[in-house]
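Tutorial handout. Part one gives the primary structure; part two gives the three-dimensional structure as tokens.
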Amino acid sequence: MTALVIDASVWVSAADPSDTVSETSRAFLSQVAAQELSIALPEFAKLEIACALARRLRSAEHGRSLTDQMLESPRMSTYSVNRPVLRNAIQLGTRSFLRAGDALYAAVAQRVEGQFVTWDRELIKRAGAVTPDGWIERNVCEKE
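Part two.
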């Protein structure tokens, strides 16, 4: 299997037990780790996740430390926002009416020919992403 591109919504949900889909997000990330799958993220993802966690948890230190823990995997690759990636993100984003950050995730998913996983309904509808539970259903349940 090619790399997974996992949107910030999944990481943030997994780190916040009060989130309604936190348990599913954690189960998904556990499956990714158990299967030793590669993860690809746009370079700015760590910033996005850390800031989102700090805002949600109202703790700068907690946001930073949780982000470091979650993204420390040796199977994690980050992709810089160079001209080709940016050009592709502009094409994808303007064609599908995506937010800028979301277009970068979509561009990385396309670049690595990976599956894009998110809780964002807009990305599912417009960028071909799947939810974590949808990914589990297709990739774990079928193997059992």
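Part three, for discussion. The helical segments are 8-15, 22-34, 45-57, 60-70, 83-96, 100-112, 121-127, 132-141. The chain has eight helices and four strands.
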